[in-house]
């Protein structure tokens, strides 16, 4: 049986989509086949998750943490990774992100690791346009057996950087969704009661509050939405450094009374926050000349699994998660008008919105399962 060492900076209890992706891949490996070597989340990351020690003990595999918030491929980390691989008899390595940790691939290969795979996400696709990062990505591609990609957008960006042989070895590996957790009836009614939402129409956005995610576009669109749907509520789920600016924008636009900020939400409570909504919207956008893009957006898939129609911004690979016009809509994220029009149409026709959400859930159950992702990883690891 292949025994895999996962080396990653992106792992719970630090929250985030990549963290959830890597963790789920680890949990879906055969028993006894995984060891995780990762960083330790800073204390500021621990608010809505268990402490690392309690989290690690609960996992069905060993978790070895370096006492640093970021693993970098320096001499000490390289030496420890090679030592863990030897002591744990790991014959394969999976890097949670290709850059920068994939720079350790050549040394691990010399120590006898048979198979090396590097995951990529949105940030690698952005970095592919930077000269220094391009060289590192090309080196990672040359020294690993497979570089994975999320969808057509990320593959196209990365394939231009890798040498032709590495580009031919690329394989798609995208996250799945647990449709038993994210589903209609997952506690939304109780949450609505707790938040005193009653039967009001709700648009939810689940994400960190940062400029790229587009919560400001939602707030700019909200006066037009309220003009047509006066009792609508915008539920912004998540914490982040942009919150004070978003709160100020809501006051400036005169909609503060209908915009609710939940702050950070525990992982176990996320399904209820989707289930409390009628529509999901995150008009994410690309920033910094394309360096900061949405790789895929697992929140769009979680929302679809919850039976919600989705409004997504046209950033990076986000359109891969939405079948435009069928399971949701893809909008220009820089303009509030397109977002407002789509939200008004969906909130104004609940039957059509529910049908669109139902098609989204069917698609996720068919195409975006963790069982499918686990099978693809099995094949990639050989």
Radius of gyration: 21 Å
Query: Could you tell me the mean pLDDT?
Result: 94
CATH fold assignment of the largest domain: Rossmann fold
Q: Describe the strand arrangement of the main beta sheet, using strand numbers.
A: 3-2-1-4-5-6-7
Give the oligomeric state of the chains in this entry, treating copies of one chain as homo and distinct chains as hetero.
single chain
CATH class type of the largest domain: Alpha Beta
Number of helices: 16
Name of the CATH homologous superfamily of the largest domain: Glycogen Phosphorylase B
Number of strands: 13
Uncertain runs with pLDDT below 50, 5 residues or more?
Answer: none
Give structural notes.
The chain has 382 residues and is an alpha/beta fold. The chain has two domains: 4-173, Rossmann fold (3-Layer(aba) Sandwich), CATH 3.40.50; 188-367, Rossmann fold (3-Layer(aba) Sandwich). 41% of the residues lie in helices and 14% in strands. The chain contains 16 helices and 13 strands. It has helices spanning 17-27, 52-57, 75-87, 105-110, 122-127, 131-143, 152-159, 164-168, 188-194, 215-228, 243-252, 270-275, 298-305, 336-348, 350-367, 370-381; strands at 4-8, 34-38, 63-65, 92-95, 115-118, 146-149, 171-172, 202-206, 233-237, 259-263, 279-282, 310-313, 328-331. The strands form two sheets. A seven-stranded parallel sheet has the order 3-2-1-4-5-6-7, with helices on both faces. Strands 10-9-8-11-12-13 form a six-stranded parallel sheet, with helices on both faces. Strand 9, helix 11 (243-252) and strand 10 (259-263) form a beta-alpha-beta unit. The longest helix is centred in the last third of the chain and has 18 residues, at 350-367. The termini are close together. The mean pLDDT is 94.
């Amino acid at each position: 049986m292949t025994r895999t060492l996962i080396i990653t900076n992106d792992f719970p209890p630090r929250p985030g989509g990549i963290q959830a992706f890597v963790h789920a891949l680890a949990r879906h490996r055969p028993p006894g086949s995984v060891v995780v070597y990762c960083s330790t989340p800073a204390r500021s990351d621990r608010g809505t998750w268990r402490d690392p020690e309690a989290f690690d003990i609960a996992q069905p595999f060993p978790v070895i943490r370096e006492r640093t918030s970021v693993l970098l491929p320096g001499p000490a980390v390289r030496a420890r990774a090679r030592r863990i691989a030897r002591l744990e008899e790991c014959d394969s390595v999976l890097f949670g992100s290709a850059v920068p940790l994939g720079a350790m691939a050549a040394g691990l290969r010399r120590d006898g690791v048979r198979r090396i795979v590097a995951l990529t996400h949105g940030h690698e696709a952005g970095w592919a346009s930077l000269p220094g990062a391009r060289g590192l990505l090309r080196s990672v591609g040359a020294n690993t057996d497979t570089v994975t990609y999320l969808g057509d957008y990320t593959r196209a960006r990365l394939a231009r950087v890798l040498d032709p042989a590495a580009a031919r070895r690329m394989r798609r590996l995208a996250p799945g969704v647990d449709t038993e957790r994210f589903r209609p009836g997952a506690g939304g009614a109780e949450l609505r009661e707790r938040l005193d939402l009653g039967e009001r129409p709700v648009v939810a956005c689940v994400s960190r509050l940062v400029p790229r995610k587009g919560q400001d576009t939602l707030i700019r669109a909200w006066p037009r939405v309220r003009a047509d749907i006066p009792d609508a509520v915008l539920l912004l789920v998540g914490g982040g450094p942009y919150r004070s600016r978003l709160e100020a924008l809501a006051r400036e636009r005169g909609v503060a009374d209908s915009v609710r900020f939940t702050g950070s939400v525990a992982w176990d409570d996320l399904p209820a926050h989707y289930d409390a909504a009628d529509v999901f919207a995150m008009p994410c956008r690309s920033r910094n000349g394309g360096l900061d893009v949405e790789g895929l957006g697992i929140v769009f898939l979680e929302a679809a699994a919850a039976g919600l129609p989705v409004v997504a911004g046209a950033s990076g690979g986000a359109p891969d998660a939405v079948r435009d016009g069928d399971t949701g809509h893809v909008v220009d994220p820089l303009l509030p008008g397109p977002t407002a029009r789509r939200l008004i149409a969906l909130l104004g026709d609940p039957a059509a919105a529910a049908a669109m959400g139902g098609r989204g859930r069917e698609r996720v159950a068919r195409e975006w399962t963790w069982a499918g992702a686990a099978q693809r990883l099995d094949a990639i690891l050989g």
